[in-house]
Amino acid sequence: MPVKIESGKVTETIQLINWNESEQNDFAIAEEVTLKGNLERRPDLVLYVNGIAIAILELKKQPRDHRRRYPPEPLQPTTGI
Hints:
The protein is mainly beta and 81 residues long. The protein has a domain of 40 residues. Helices cover 5% and strands 25% of the residues. The chain has a three-stranded antiparallel sheet, with no helix packed on it. The radius of gyration is 22 Å and the shape is elongated.
């Protein structure tokens, strides 16, 4: 991102996220942050890198009848297709 540090100086390019050394970034997760704009929303989780929101997650409960919908043993691959 180009930024001007001082008046009369040439703009410099800075990286908001350090892609080469990810451990140099600050990571955070916030629960139920109110997002305001044209539409006010309150997602379950917001993921931040260096104070920049990069992901919004909505978590859903698993249905109570999940055992009927998903078999307990893994599906076997079919052959002869």
